[in-house]
């Protein structure tokens, strides 16, 4: 008795054997096996009969003519269905890619934020230290501005103040020089901290300070001693930048990818429904 | 006018030239569609779509066998239709009526055969056709292209976007499965056409 593997192997080769698409070794194996195995011989004969019957199947004549008319009716050219179907694999692939990209970016963001929070802690102190030289004068200026804003000096008071400061001593000049390089950046910061109602007094205060700086010899800052309206507008533009944190580019990418995933997913579902 | 000249004229928009090609190949295209779909209405739709698509895309025909090109288009149309049916199964009017109309179009193989033999052959053909529809799509299309359309393994591989090894495997499994189907329904066949496996 032949091993069962021989029967299976022979049967697998019958189809190719009938079509003469076997190697010489395979051919001799089938012939040797069917010569001694009656069952497989009968199977081979049955396979031959089937192929012969299939090849003898008559040609089914077209029931009508498929000649194209001069003007093709709309229902004959069912192109939209075909084109929608053609889009389906591409849309499905694009959706899958968008999902993968979204997951990767999101995971990366999570990873970065969890590591970043622990990594950013130590440099926080040196950064503060580095900022100190510029931040301190700014803070001083801010405090002065706030203090003067609360006093709400009128223009006449400011004029008097200017007269008084013309005879200011060297110590005040040094103090002015310290704050002079910073007024442009410090003042908007100061005014931005004030409520909207206090914007005008704050700007007047700013003018008084810069005027002081100008008189005491901080000529470099003179062009920056702008009219009262400019610091206010600077404050208006600076306020959102300081108040709300800028959007993280990574977060922006996440939002865009998330939207893309939703749009592509919906489009894929629609196309699938229409194609079905 | 030879085929190439007709194709060139059709490419330039000559519908009459294209329709001459339609008349030459419509039976072969329809026959393939019918053998795959086993349903007249579906075969007609596939054939019609094939010729419309061929006319619109004639510029993409790069020479070679125009018949093979048409058969490739109709095979793809049948693939698409089978996939659509799987997603949205529906019973057609043809299926409900047993598709007798389609069978009426068969060429009777030999005029010398008696009416009984003709009837037996028809029963055999019906059973084979039903058996073909039980095969998975890939096996069904490969078997029809090979055994009904007499295409080579290489042609089938090109047409179905696969390789010769896969064609060989699909054909082998398809034939084995169809043989099992016919043997299981052997009592329906006349003795002459039974595919016995016990040395008949």
What is this entry, summarized?
The complex is a heterodimer of chains A (276) and B (200). By secondary structure, chain A is mainly alpha-helical. Chain A has ten helices and no strands.
How confident is the prediction overall: mean pLDDT of chain B? 83
- Strand/helix succession of chain B: HHHHHHHHHH
Molecular shape of chain A: elongated
Number of DSSP-assigned strands of chain A? 0
Number of beta strands of chain B: 0
Helix content of chain B: 55-70%
Q: What CATH architecture label of the largest domain in chain B applies?
A: Orthogonal Bundle
Oligomeric state: heterodimer
Measure the end-to-end span of chain B.
51 Å
What order do the helices and strands of chain A follow?
HHHHHHHHHH
Q: Quickly count the helices of chain A.
A: 10
Largest sheet features of chain A: none
CATH-derived topology of the largest domain in chain B: Arc Repressor Mutant, subunit A
Largest sheet of chain B: none
Low-confidence stretches of chain B: 93-109
Described by the principal axes of the CA atoms, the overall outline of chain B is: globular
How many domains of chain A? Answer: 2
Largest interface: A-B, 44 and 61 residues
Q: In angstroms, what is the radius of gyration of chain A?
A: 43 Å
Q: How many discrete structural domains of chain B?
A: 2
- Helical residue percent band of chain A: over 70%
Q: Can you put this structure into words, describing what you see?
A:
The complex is a heterodimer of chains A (276) and B (200). Chain A is mainly alpha-helical and 276 residues long. Chain A folds into two domains: 4-55, no CATH class; 81-108 and 134-251, no CATH class. Chain A is 76% helix and 0% strand. Chain A contains ten helices and no strands. Chain A has helices at 4-18, 24-36, 38-55, 79-151, 155-165, 170-179, 183-192, 199-215, 229-243, 249-275. In chain A, helix 4 (79-151) crosses helix 7 (183-192), helix 5 (155-165) packs parallel to helix 8 (199-215) and helix 7 (183-192) crosses helix 9 (229-243). The two termini of chain A are 53 Å apart. The model of chain A is unreliable at 122-147, 149-159 and 167-241 (pLDDT under 50). Chain B is built from ten helices and no strands. Helices cover 69% and strands 0% of the residues of chain B. Chain B has 200 residues and is mostly helical. Chain B folds into two domains: 1-94, RNA polymerase sigma factor, region 2, helix turn helix motif (Rna Polymerase Sigma Factor, Chain: A, Orthogonal Bundle); 106-200, Orthogonal Bundle (Arc Repressor Mutant, subunit A), CATH 1.10.10.10. Mean pLDDT of chain B is 83; it is low at 93-109. Chains A and B meet through helix 1, helix 3 and helix 4 of A and helix 2, helix 3, helix 4, helix 7 and helix 8 of B.
